[in-house]
From TrEMBL:
Belongs to the sterol desaturase family. It comes from the Bacteria. This is Beta-carotene hydroxylase. GO terms for biological process: carotene metabolic process; xanthophyll biosynthetic process.
Length: 160
């Protein structure tokens, strides 16, 4: 198989797989044992750096390890996998921190279409201020906000 095809597939695999990895990390780690870091992101009125930002360092460490491994003879696809992971990180920062939370000036407004759906889905995630419950744990793939509202209502109805 040509190297360009292997490298392209590796890049795309890193980019696409990260949404699943991020979803699982968010659902089971951030809203689980590492809630102590992530809860800073769910506190209203926060400004500036958050303890939650440490997760970016963790993911950067994974990308750095993949870059290092991919620099070894015969392991070049891992380098391209790292490029895909890094590209996801850049998209995450732009969409989540820039577009959704406005942590830095961002030139695009989510006033229609998929971007509006993504912002609404993430804001519904922030309706829950505890580690339990919640909806919409993905970052770039947004579920239907109407469906998420029904899930939140069902969760509230199930509470004693």
């Amino acid at each position: 198989m040509p190297a360009i095809l292997i490298n392209t597939v590796s890049f795309l695999a890193g980019l696409v797989a990260m949404e699943g990895v991020a979803w699982a990390m968010h659902r089971y780690i951030m809203h689980g044992p590492l809630w102590v870091w992530h809860k800073s992101h769910h506190e209203p009125g926060r400004k500036g750096p958050e303890l939650n930002d440490l997760f970016a360092i963790v993911f950067a460490g994974i990308a750095i390890a993949l870059f290092w491994a991919g620099a070894q003879p015969g392991l070049r696809p891992l380098w391209w996998l790292a490029v895909g992971v890094t590209a996801y990180g850049v998209l995450y920062a732009m969409v989540h921190d820039g577009l959704v939370h406005r942590r830095f000036p961002f030139p695009i407004k989510a006033d229609r279409g998929y971007l509006l759906r993504l912002v609404r889905a993430h804001h519904l995630h922030h309706v829950t201020h505890t580690r339990e419950g919640g909806v919409s744990f993905g970052f770039l793939v947004a579920e239907d906000p109407e469906r998420l509202m029904r899930q939140l209502q069902a969760q509230r109805a199930d509470r004693p």
